[in-house]
Design goal:
Blueprint lengths: L9 H20 L3 H16 L6 H16 L5 H18 L2 H17 L4 H18 L2 H17 L4 H18 L2 H16 L4 H19 L2 H17 L7 H19 L1
Helix pairs in contact: 1-2, 2-3, 2-4, 3-4, 4-5, 4-6, 5-6, 6-7, 6-8, 7-8, 8-9, 8-10, 9-10, 10-11, 11-12
Length: 262
């Protein structure tokens, strides 16, 4: 069957099934604490990559991480995986306590490995989650600090630059701040420079230009935003998130053109 979570992607389902069997064999057939805790960690890591994520699956991943620690795995990675799954559960449920639990696990990860870029980035995600739910701008600035730490430890960490851009975009939308949009563009360029997810980088770049265009009521900026959205679609044709904002900037551009022609 489709196991206890249905995945359209056969490869993901196959890997997930093998991971569950790995846990089962390590526990039931020939118990070994190290291989069992490693298998549990692998399951927690696997769940992080599934989209969309279900609450039940995330809770299973959290239980797997907890069991992994109880059976002897105490490295930075398992606490990172544990923290990420708490963050994802916060996103899925809107429960602020999960973001705070994520931060606690990520702090533990960073005590073990102080230069762990991915853990700093995940900490930034949890802070952004708190910012979005509470509308407290302080969390956005705290998140930016964590993303900056991620980049400090890995200058070529393209995803962290992209995260900085997204965080700045959300803050710029709240504050209607032209300079924050400019900073977001800077980080989009950095992400592209280091070969990040190009469709997301161009999408965020387009969103920053669209924000600037609304503040200045600028046809040229709307045109530039539309170009970046088009580039995003070229990079990933099935990236459906791009189409609504792309249409919006084209409509705003058309309105400005009509006004000038009247």
């Amino acid at each position: 069957g489709c196991f206890f979570f249905c995945q359209k992607d056969f490869i993901n389902s196959f890997v997930a099934t093998n991971t569950i069997l790995e846990i089962f064999n390590a526990k039931k057939v020939q118990f070994n604490k190290k291989s069992y805790s490693n298998a549990l960690t692998n399951f927690g890591s696997l769940v992080m990559g599934f989209e969309p994520n279900s609450e039940n699956l995330l809770r299973m991943a959290l239980s797997a991480c907890e069991a992994g620690v109880e059976h002897g795995r105490q490295d930075a990675y398992i606490y990172y995986v544990w923290g990420m799954n708490f963050y994802l559960l916060g996103e899925a449920t809107g429960d602020l306590s999960f973001f705070k639990k994520a931060i606690s696990k990520l702090q533990r990860s960073l005590k073990i490995k102080r230069n762990y870029s991915e853990a700093y980035s995940a900490w930034g995600h949890a802070l952004c989650g708190l910012a979005q739910k509470t509308r407290n701008e302080r969390y956005y600035f705290d998140a930016l600090q964590k993303y900056s730490r991620a980049v400090f430890h890995n200058r070529e960490y393209a995803a962290a630059y992209l995260n900085c851009a997204k965080c700045l975009l959300e803050l710029a939308d709240i504050r209607h701040d032209f300079k924050l949009y400019d900073r977001a563009v800077k980080y989009c360029r950095k992400s592209i420079q280091y070969k990040g997810e190009l469709h997301k980088a161009y999408f965020n770049w387009g969103s920053a230009l669209a924000g600037k265009a609304r503040l200045k009521n600028s046809k040229a900026l709307y045109e530039d935003a539309a170009d970046k959205y088009a580039k995003s679609s070229e990079c990933k044709s099935d990236y459906v998130m791009v189409y609504i904002p792309w249409v919006k900037v084209l409509l705003e551009q058309a309105k400005l053109t009509n006004k000038k022609n009247l």
